[in-house]
Specification:
88 residues, Histidine-containing Protein, Chain: A, 26% strand, single chain, alpha+beta
Amino acid sequence: MTQIDLVLTNTAGLHARPAARFIQKASSYTSKVTIRTGEKTADAKSILSLMGLGLGQGTRFTLMADGADEVECIAALKAMVENNFGEG
């Protein structure tokens, strides 16, 4: 398992559009991908699960991947978060 701690800096938080992009990218990998914040854990390939976390700007979370392509998966998703999901 590969994991990394990140902080959500996107001004609007993880709303529908960036969540959809995140899920699309996570789903392109075979690894199981999860996000944990506090006591809550979500499947990063499920829009309902991910939106249920209510991630807003400044939220710290742990991104975890487990599988054959976990390292590449984490690297790609980390870049996406750090680039604010491609939003200005």
